[in-house]
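@channel sequence for tomorrow's demo:
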Amino acid sequence: MYIPYFRGKQFDLLALKESVTDGLLPKGTVPLIEPVRDSAYLRKTLKAFIENEREILVIDNPEVGQVQRGVARIHEIKDLFESTYVTPVYLLNHSFNPAWIIQDDFVFLSKRYFKDILAEVSTYQPRYHIITDSARLRKAVHDNRVLLTDPFTRLNHGADYLELEDEFYSDDSKYFLEDGYIGYANYGIDGETYYDKGYPSRSIVLHILYLDRYKSVRIKHFVSDSNDSAANPAGKFFEALKKLAEWHSRYKKEVPLTRGLEELLSYHERGAYPGTGIIKKLSVMHQLELYGML
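structure tokens (generated this afternoon):
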């Protein structure tokens, strides 16, 4: 089982909604959303999963973003937890209250080791208990555990990826069972670090996952060349996209053409700039489909 972890930003949600609606979400993939906005897109995405009878996990007590637990929302989602396909996730931290758990079906998420909290919930039986790769958590949590990692290498500036064009990403899919987990999870190509808002960048980087001959996941970083200022983002996009198109043309037998990658490459042929949001959506769709090939 693979659990990709997304913050609930607009284009992450659009990627999830399109993937599940169009039948592209692989079996064995159960997305996890940490809501960060009071967004109609979140509700629409969850309803799409319900309509297509696919499981999705939603953090009930987010620790980042603008919709902390207890804050009033315009687009409420509590009623959707009544569906068998939408499962609440409780982040175990010092603000967690066991009284919040009212469903029989739920998931725990432990990013850090809190001895007192783990002792307090020791008799609970979550469907999954997602934990980071911490020695203390591995020792404390034994049942139904899922490994959460952050394999993305975050550099200070996009242009820095010119010195790191290709690197290993993850091989958790090959070893999670023998390591005592029932599944594995990761933050995807954003990494764990959360930024509430973006800002103009001097460079554009296309982060593309692919599989090597050993079925490990690697990542390519395709970087624009004109990185002296934030001007002309469309031009920067085409510089990076040209590199991606040339690479895929050379290795198209080895690199599967997912829906997301195919649509991204189509902008090279059309000479059209979709904007950073659509780029993000297509990258997420590619990630979801690619992991289904493991």
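heads up for whoever presents: The radius of gyration is 19 Å.
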